Amino acid sequence: MSDGPSLIRDLEALEQEALEATADATDPDDLEAVRIRFLGRKDGRISGVLRGLGGLDHTERPAVGAAANRVKGVVSAALDARAASLAAESGPDSALDLSLPGRRAWAGGKHPITLVLDEIWEVFRSMGFTRARGPEAETEWYNFEALNTPLDHPAADEQDTLYLEDSVLLRSHTSPVQIRTLQNHAPPVRILAPGWVYRRDTYDATHTPAFMQVEGLVVDEGVDFVDFKATLAEFARRFWGPGTRIRLRPSFFPFTEPSAEVDVKRVITLPDGSTRETDWLEIMGAGMVDPAVLDAAGVDSERYTGFAFGMGPARIAMLKYGVTDLRTFFENDMRFLAQFAPGGEA
Ligand code: PHE
User: Fold this and answer.
1) CA angle, 242 as apex, 239 and 245 as ends, to 5°?
2) What is the structure's pLDDT at 144?
3) Which of 47, 286, 324, 331 fits as disulfide partner to 309, beta carbons 3.0 to 4.6 Å?
4) What is the pLDDT of residue 123?
5) Pocket test for ligand 1, best of 255, 262, 293 (most atoms within 8 A of CB)
């Protein structure tokens, strides 16, 4: 017949034995066997001692129970610590070399052109524009004819455009999205349409055969030249800063009349705190939508007017980041790209 104090002595002896066995274990299997031998629910030796609890006077039980819980906690913690140190010692090279350089945790970052695209979108979104998109494989009609560009126009020439098959091509600009949008949505229309476009260009510092464009289109009753210029001036100020000015230079596109090239002049702050204006830099083609374009899309050109613009985010990224060779954006050199990632250099 056991009594409380003798059970507690048994538990303390088991504690010593378990701690020694734990320290002697040399691999995880050994250690697991020790855990089962002492802490196992059914046949564990500590559980075995507790089975004697039933024969005790009820006044003695709490002290034995508390001792058993303490011993279980101590042995279990020792087993965990030993498991951790065995795991650290194993591995291909068990020596821990503190002189090795740390491993960098790579965080992905957005491509600089995507960053610029996001900023452009944010400005127009804040002015009430929504997004639109269209297919990259287009028909001659959407890419040229509906945009008031006859097929004998130089732009439609096979020298400049990548044809997939008869009358199907890779769109050479995002302007076909103007037509697709107007066919599907009655005015008022205020959209921004980013996407890839393709031209038969030689890959060099200022040309790539595939590049991004962002198309803008506004069509409503009473849209006039003042709305056109004010919207683009407001875009420039929100994108580059309050002092930015724009200039419209007369130009020609078959789908706008009048047409313009849009230039910006930015204010930059020098290291000494003084400010200086940059040269005029060309950022986009634009103009008032030609009534023939509205007619082709089934929009009443007597009632509605509008303006449109198209810009290249890569060109804007070059101006913004001082990049002089367009190819840098496509070569995926991590030393270049990492400069734009939140985590910094490669
Ligand atoms: N689509 C023209 C280009 O690719 C740009 C443009 C868009 C011009 C809209 C005027 C209006 O060069």
Assistant:
1) 80
2) 96
3) 286
4) 98
5) 255
Domain ranges of the chain: 4-89, 112-340
CA distance 303 to 290: 13
Residue 174 CA, closest ligand 1 atom number? 1
Q: Which atom of ligand 1 is nearest to the CA of 310?
A: 7
Residues 111-135 pLDDT 10s: 999 999 999 999 999 999 999 999 9
Which residue is it, tokens 């510092």?
A: 205
326 pLDDT higher than 70: yes
Cβ–Cβ < 8 Å for 221, 187: yes
268-to-1, 33, 248, 339 alpha-carbon distances in Å = 94, 73, 21, 21
Whether 179 shows a pLDDT value over 60: the answer reads yes
- Of the chain, the percentage scoring pLDDT greater than 70 comes to 97
Look at residue 42 in the predicted model and tell me its pLDDT.
Answer: 83
Atom of ligand 1 nearest to the CA of 259: 10
List, chain by chain if needed, residues with CB within 6 Å of any ligand 1 atom: 173, 175, 215, 253, 256, 285-287, 308-310
Query: What b-and-e string marks burial along 114-140, b requiring 16 or more CB atoms within 10 Å of the CB?
Result: ebbbeebbebbeeeebeebebeeebeb
Going from the C-alpha of 160 to that of each of 178, 211, 233, 242, the distances in angstroms are 21, 14, 32, 39
| DSSP 8-state class, residue 233 | H
Fold of the domain built from segment(s) 112-340: BirA Bifunctional Protein; domain 2 (3.30.930)
**Residue-level pLDDT at 94:** 59
Per residue, the 3-state secondary structure of 76-130, as one string, reads HHHHHHHHHHHHHHCCCCCCCCCCCCCCCCCCCCCCHHHHHHHHHHHHHHHCCCE
The residue nearest atom 7 of ligand 1, judged by CA position, is: 310
Q: Once rounded to an integer, what is the mean pLDDT over residues 194-198? A: 97
